[in-house]
Amino acid sequence: MDLAWVRDLNSLAMTSNFSRAAEMNHLSQPAFSRRIKALETWVGAELVDRSTHPVNLTAAGEQFLEAGTQALSRIETERDLIREAQAQPDRYLVTFATQHSIGWRFYPAWLQEIESGFGPIMSRLRADDLPNCVAALDAGDADFVIAYASSVSPGIDATADMESFSIGQDVLLPVCKAGPRGRPLFHLDRNNSSSIPYLKFGEVAPIRQHIEPLLDKLELTRRLDIQYENSMAGALRIKARDGVGVAWLPKSLVQPDLDSGDLVVAGAKRWSIRLAIRLHRNTKKTNSLTRKIWTHVLDASS
């Protein structure tokens, strides 16, 4: 896949017009159309709804564009870090590994706040599935892991070499598209006998550990009708905005959608799940810089 295709799709999303998007990218309209078609072939799905005027992205197109722009940003950031590291070979590159949902909004603001007190940190972000983050920490390929914990699950199991403390909070909210007059299209408290279309985290997503105990406790599991399953919170967010069903998503991720009214909370407070955001380290895989960062963050959190 040509990374430029992601930029092509973004231009089309911005303009809703093949000719204007082609002009933005200094291409002829036929050449631009061929590139979009090549991207659709690579993905294996239609990304653009050509039956509408102006054209719009399909749900698959929105999902891919969101993931693609994030991946492209990460690649460009890694390139810049590599160049900086080569220019300053004596500086250590600190690696933070996070769950995808945390890396999306919480991590950038948190790091900026830490650097305002500690000073600039030459760092990189590894947003990945939690088991991969933990494996990287154990192998020494990551210096810190940032992960969710709740009253029903620690997120990361404690070991003799693992230390952690809380650096923030979040909450999992049941959200869905708004119906008439801004009310939830699907309401968890409306009728105890009716089924609820459910957008579910996939089997490999550890965030399920925090959600499923609540669903069982409040006897909601039997009422849930699974419409879509994905391990990426971003994909569930898009489906929720499209009105497909209810998803439990981090408030930090969906706050812009709540502010705009694209999503609304689908139930009373009892359906929400409080999360702690914890910083973890392997005490056997540290150095002088990461120990100083750990101490600073611990003092700041206290």
Which secondary-structure class do the elements indicate?
alpha/beta
Task: Give the count of helical stretches.
Answer: 11
Query: What is the CATH topology descriptor of the largest domain?
Result: D-Maltodextrin-Binding Protein, domain 2
Mean pLDDT: 90
Shape: flat
Report Rg: 21 Å
Assigned CATH architecture of the largest domain? 3-Layer(aba) Sandwich
CATH class of the largest domain, please?
Answer: Alpha Beta
Strand content: 15-25%
Oligomerization category of the chains in this entry = single chain
Q: Which regions have little confidence, pLDDT < 50, spanning 5+ residues?
A: none
Major sheet? 7 strands, mixed
So, the CATH homologous superfamily of the largest domain?
Answer: Periplasmic binding protein-like II
Gap between N and C termini: 47 Å
Total beta strand runs: 11
Integer tally of domains: 3
Helix content: 40-55%
Note the run of SSEs as H and E: HHHEEHEHHEHEEEHEHEHEEH
